[in-house]
Request: fold
Amino acid sequence: MAEGVRARVKVPGNATAGESVVIKTLISHPMESGQRKDSDGNIIPRSIIHRFVCDFNGQNVIDVKMEPAISTNPYFEFEATIPESGDMHFTWYDDDGSVYEKTETVTVG
Amino acid sequence: MMTTSLKTMICTAAMLTLGAGAAAAQTDEKLVVNGETEITTQAPAPAHLDGALDTIYSGWEFRSPATREVQMDDFDNPGMIFVDQARQVWNTADGSEGKSCASCHDDPAQSMKGVRAVYPKWNEDAQEVRTLEMQINDCRTNRMGAEAWGYTDKGMTSMVALISLQSRGMPVNVAIDGPAQSTWEKGKELYYTRTGQLELSCANCHEDHYGDMIRADHLSQGQINGFPVYRLKNAKLNAVHSRFKGCVRDTRAETYKPGSPEFVALELYVASRGNGLDVEAPSVRN
Amino acid sequence: MELTRRGAIALGAGVAATLVLPIRAMASADAAIAEFTGGAEMGEGGLEFITPEIAENGNTVPIEVRAPGATAIAVFATGNPTPKVATFNFGPLAGAQRASTRIRLAGTQDVVAVAKMADGSFVRASNNVKVTIGGCGG
Reply:
């Protein structure tokens, strides 16, 4: 259903140990609410991303439960503590079973 | 059908109250993208306007603080995600010649710098004024052996955004004389012609009443230096001709088709009313 | 709901129309909040909820929640047909208990944020957002 989904994340490449850094994420997705009708009056079926998770080196930063009231092309901004160098992993879960993933490396030094 | 007529009634009601509301001033805020690219959002009106306007303003100045802010950071601006998509298409071969845009134009940051600022533009070989969309389809069909894109299709509008971005912060400067002049005159005539049951011209709203509230919408000068525009309303990039279509339809007139000679002429004329404002694509509007 | 909204504008042309919420929507918002709190009492303070006073378009309204020490913050749009919006669960590596996103509002209404604090208590914050009906001009 949701084709050509594309994610962007903004993560600083470097941090000092224990620093809290600002993360931004945006993913192209219609977030079809299931409440709109097409031009023939038929309900357009619900198709949303219902969950977004950000982990760093396997530990959770934020886990968001998303409802159809989240706007098209979902955007999140939040903060993460960086204890050591490692990978920040982002996962979006689509209603249709698709999972979109992205990983960024942060270096402490 | 019902929706259209309701909407039009509302627009009419609003027109009657135009001017009654406070003519809110444009903002004093400056548009700086990513804390580095300064964008000129007001400029002295070009000479051809002959005093019809003293100062030209970007539509950005008329939006609410929250909407303005989204455009000030490329990460916050959802229009940029479509630019990313177009960048991928730019590098992907398509058509019988096995070529991509990059095969001939290399890095858009160099090859497309300043292009948006001078479009629509006269094309000598074709003996016509071309919009970016027309030029892109010309490359696709005649040089790549690929199918033309729909004039306001998502892929087309995203590509126009990628190309326009390379001119961000450069002043709009379309040529209105020489071979482009007759097209420009035609566009000007369209701009001032009252259409539809409401008998409104573009100028009635965007020249006579900019700064006023129309319903709850802060009316701008209808400039196109920000196109393609990411609209919060439909959460996608919108092409110039899609906006024209919406505006004409609101006067309850039959609208021209995107890509039609009429809209191409109108685009040239409207672009020229913004000569001096910086290109700010992809911009964000409500 | 759509008709009510449009009707209101035709009468009070140009003014941001205040949507009179059907009682039904309010009730379902209360139920959704109770689902999150388990029916617990909600206090006030310690939860910052930033929303625009006026949103130019209900499709994309920026919001931010911030509650130092919270384990989760849920957001509800009391005037939407389905009031739940999002629940932010903060993990051990959250740098701050704060998050921003963009949401859809079906009209002018109160939006509510509820934070679950580490000690299991709940606090609530509520803001009114006026959604203007723009849109001549396609």
